[in-house]
Amino acid sequence: MKPTLLILAAGMGSRYGGLKQIDPMGPSGETLLDYSVFDALRAGFGRVVFVIRPDFEKDFRERVMSRFAGRVDTECVFQTLEMLPDGFTVPAGRTKPWGTSHAVLCSRGVIHEPFAMINADDFYGRDSFAVLGRRLSSLAADSSAYCMVGFTLATTLSAHGTVARGVCRTDEQGFLTDIRELLHVKRVPGGAEDVDGDRITRLTGDEPVSMNMWGFTPHVFPQLEQSFRLFLESHGDEPKSECYIPLTVGDLVKTGQATCEVLRTTSAWFGATYAEDKPIVQRSIREIVDSGEYPVNLWAT
User: Fold this and answer.
1) Contact call for residues 292 and 286 (beta carbons, < 8 A)
2) N or C: which end of the chain has fewer CB within 10 A?
3) Mean of the pLDDT values across residues 224-242?
4) What phi and psi, each to the nearest 5 degrees, are found at residue 218?
């Protein structure tokens, strides 16, 4: 059974100032998710599912999904604030999405095979999809042996502001033992640091980090629901709280409900957290295209 690619494309792009999901980055107008779909197809993935918001469905179908017609089966699912477990309601004034754990949970009804989860607005590279696709193809649908592609922290930072990163610890066999979701990481001389109020976390820059490139099976869905329920009970009344996949997986690992192998890749990650990052991303793609890794127009044939 071929694995499915789940692309989270419901973000609001508040720091970027617009919808990165449909912003052209490649030399022929490709979005970053175009490159992810292209790489996934040559890595053996069989289907693509997008998590989007209902308010930009029309634009997304016309400007993004139309490119894939006749190339791969695609499907959309929606992430809305109202999609909550029984017994919970949206608190007054809440406008922020519930986070990545909730976004993945929204796909529960349409995914029945091992799947990769990625962000729509990140570039992960060919080798990342190859190593993840090979691992997922070996898993049974009820396996709790999850995985993630790990990137090096220093190579994922922005020159234009702070970023959120899931900083990982692994054992000697390369399995995740702990992950911390740091929300304000920035480059500093000699490494990086995260400043959260009075707490400062200093980092070397060599740490493996999650860039939300995960491998799961459908076994994860009831686990995500349980985690999301606990989150809502503790933080559901906070207007900007989010339930993050890295923290959910970290809890599953710590409690023995799952394992998570950290896969290494030769590919470089890059993305556009801020509008000022866009020229850098476009230049990076152009360099990879010029090297022959990708055609100038991904979908020309």
Assistant:
1) no
2) C
3) 94
4) -60, -15
Q: At what angle do helices 126-137 and 32-42 cross, to 10 degrees?
A: 50
Bridge partners for 73 per DSSP: 47
Q: Which two tokens stand for residue 48?
A: 């693509």
Burial call 23-62: b when 16+ CB within 10 Å, e when fewer: bebbbeebbbbbbbbbbbbebebebbbbbbbeebeeebee
**Digit-coded pLDDT (tens) for 241-290:** 999 998 899 999 999 999 999 998 888 888 877 778 888 889 999 999 99
The identity of residue 278, as a single letter, is: K
The tokens describing 147, both together, are 């995985």
Q: How many residues does the chain have?
A: 301
Domains observed in the chain: 4-290 (3.90.550.10)
**pLDDT single digits (tens) 51-95:** 998 988 888 888 888 889 899 999 999 999 999 999 999 999 898
**Amino acid, single-letter form, for residue 254:** K
Radius of gyration of the chain (CA): 18
The pTM assigned to this predicted structure is 0.90
Q: What was the pLDDT predicted at 11? A: 67
For the chain, percent helix, then strand, then coil, each to nearest 5?
30, 25, 40
- Residues ≥6 apart with Cβ < 8 Å to 33: 7, 9, 21, 64, 120, 121
